[in-house]
Design a protein that fits this description.
- The chain is 49% helix and 20% strand.
- With 210 residues, the protein is an alpha+beta fold.
- Helix 2 (10-33) runs antiparallel to helix 7 (177-209).
Length: 210
């Protein structure tokens, strides 16, 4: 056992802790990124999505946002910073109903343009021309969001029974899968390096003992 503990150093612990954290935090999203992507057009054509699905492509239609996300910083004295906008949740149509789409704040302007063009189409106008590429992972919608999601559908004329028949609400949450793959790879490299270093040190400690 002493031989084991002599192999543990601060550098080795750093590799294990940081590598493990990166691998665990990004593992689920990494797996999603490796799945075949479903496009927004595919969803309109009848392709079903479920929790964990990989979605990527140009958003086809948008029926405005039903919630927005803000963040703030809580200071030690109990005070807090002002709210910082962090994107909005839009309602998008699918072949079987509707889904939520969480975009970044930088995408809000284009999503609003697409929303206006979608409503113009519904009133007999042309197909939307705004192109906005988004990618993300499908998740179950939080209860706090479901409330606003359902309220928006009711404002559109859907009854509670009709909304219930649509099934469990899902949301496509924007994800930078390129960044996820990089962070996951770094985590794996750190863990492999930690394994190699430990093996070498363990062998050397054994030779010293002999």
């Amino acid at each position: 056992m002493d031989r084991f503990f002599r192999c543990i150093t601060k550098g080795w612990l750093f590799l294990i802790l940081v590598g493990g954290a990166l691998a665990v935090l990004n593992g689920r999203l990494f797996i999603t990124s490796m799945k075949p992507a479903v496009s927004f057009q595919d969803m309109l054509d009848g392709t079903e999505i479920h929790e964990g699905s990989h979605v990527a492509g140009n958003v086809v239609y948008s029926l405005d946002y039903f919630a927005e996300e803000t963040t703030y910083t809580r200071y030690k004295d109990g005070s807090r910073s002002g709210d910082r906008k962090n994107g909005k949740y839009y309602l998008i149509p699918t072949a079987s109903g509707f889904a939520g789409l969480k975009c970044r704040e930088v995408d809000v302007s284009d999503m609003n343009k697409l929303t206006d063009e979608t409503f113009d189409l519904l009133e007999g106008g042309a197909e939307p021309s705004t192109e906005i590429f988004l990618q993300g992972r499908v998740e179950k919608m939080d209860d706090s969001l479901v409330k606003y999601f359902n309220e928006y559908l009711m404002d559109m004329g859907y009854s509670e029974s009709e909304i219930s028949a649509l099934g469990e609400p899902l949301v496509i949450r924007y994800t930078s899968f390129g960044a996820v793959r990089v962070m996951f790879a770094i985590g794996v490299v750190f863990l492999v390096a930690a394994g190699i270093i430990f093996k070498i040190r363990f062998k050397r400690e054994g030779q010293k003992a002999d």
